[in-house]
Write a structure and sequence with these properties.
single chain; mainly alpha; two-stranded antiparallel ribbon; 2 strands
Amino acid sequence: MPLRTLTAPARAQIRRWVISAFPRDPSLGLTYDEPLGDPGLFGPESVTWKIHADFPGMLSGGLCALMLQTLHPLALAGVWDHSNFRTDLVGRLRRTTAFVAGTTYAARAPAEALIAKVRKIHGQVRGTATDGRVYSADDPALLTWVHVTEAYGFLEGYRRYSHAQLPLQAVDQYYDETRRVAEALGACNVPASQSEVLDFFRDKQAELEFSERSRIVLDILTRIRLPVPAAGVTRNLFLGAGAVLLPDWARILLRESAIQRAQARIAATTLWSIAPLFRAALDDGIAARACRRLGLAPDFLYRWP
């Protein structure tokens, strides 16, 4: 109790930070509190519910995934030609966050409706890359690339910052569970285990490159300002913590300098130190609401067998 009292101001500040940075969008029609007993697409017994409940791991992991995605020319072309990332990168991050939260914790009907909505949007995104290749956002191979980078980032973020001892079998289970959403979006040959993910990355490296477009997108990312206090410090903290999660081959391809690597290690250490405050501050968040929909105490999310 004395510790909880001492940390109350910090927890309140973190709660305000998260809500202002990632406000809930009622227009999406996502249901987290009802209908009672509806487990959604995964349910509380899933590894996915536990992994996605860890905010520091999810945000740093999402930024790690975004860095990886800049290395795929066709995936980047779709973002470059059809996204307003130059002027609203915050909005893009919020939409991705809402999709992951909705497909993870919402009741089944609204989660499936969200997937259908995104599929419709993907069907309108197509064009020609700078090398003359035709691309489309509903290309099964591109959907698989985007999914794997995100699943990898979220899982590694949890491993690094959650302070939890993740059972070894839970790693493969997570990849196997989350491919359901990727396949519902139209992805194919989606890796279902850690070894398959590592093989996937190894096979993909020949297709990847650090282009001028990659550099520009990353430069915009390093200047993003969430509508929160100390926006620059917060951005650098999570970006550095996300960079640490990158596979070694990606950090080389992204041309990280020795200074950038050192800064990333400091950021990772800092985020690990304050990560427990996020859990305490977000005890009534989306994941907690989903637990109560199933009649479970939210601390269920933080216990492993």
